[in-house]
Design goal:
single chain, alpha/beta, Rossmann fold, 6-stranded parallel β-sheet, two-stranded parallel ribbon, 39% helix, globular
Amino acid sequence: MALALLVPGGRGQLGQDVVAATPGDGLVHAPSSAELDLTDAAVVADAVAAFAASARDAGLRPVVVNAAAYTAVDAAETDADRAFEVNAVGPGHLAASCHEHDVPLLHVSTDYVFPGDGDRPYEPTDPTGPRSVYGRTKLAGEERVLSTAARAWVVRTAWVYGEHGGNFVKTMARLAAANDTLSVVDDQVGSPTWSLDLAHGLVELAAAVASGGTPPRVLHATGGGETTWCGFARAIFAELGLDPERVRPCGTADFPRPAPRPAYSVLSGRAWADAGLTPLRHWREALRAAVAAGAVP
């Protein structure tokens, strides 16, 4: 039986790629955050009820993939109430409605729920300890989703870039055109993730949960391997045919930001693979494919 996906945040970077990754025999409804405001409980209840009914009437298996989030990490430090509404209260409304209509929920979260002081890839069961408002609101969202009786999965990811919206890859391409050299931090380690690869992973997970093949849990899905922001920037330059040596390493202290960033936030994909899901490809291979496909400049 084919899937029907409801994708809140469907006009964002990840949401649009989830639409692209959905098989042709499925149905996908991907409203923007303005069209489906998760902070309004009544609106969410109506949307999930209508979606579940229409999917089942069409003989499809409904799944909700929540790609909506407040992702302005630095702005969240002074806009904490709004970030909490979008990242915590909204997902709670969504989970409650999914439970009411027996619809599985996949909720996308972040590496920022961890403190970033580790020295090995974080497992889903490792203790959390976010250091930023953004991370705390995303962790609160996870907790609200998992505390309901909904059949819910939390999928943490990191360093996402893609064709739609702003991201690090596009920023590097823009800065490369205007500067002879760039200084990029070399003491923060993570795993770049192409949003289209992540989208395919979420659709694969949606099919698995719709068929009852994967029990609810927290999972991690990022590009394979790890690098620093400087290493990532140099790889971007290389793929764009530019000299990677134009990117100079610097420390976090050289570029203070309102929100603290994790020094080490690599996420282990072991639980994802153990669930029978296809690991996302290595970050370097994905970057090459993304640039070749024209998904990024």
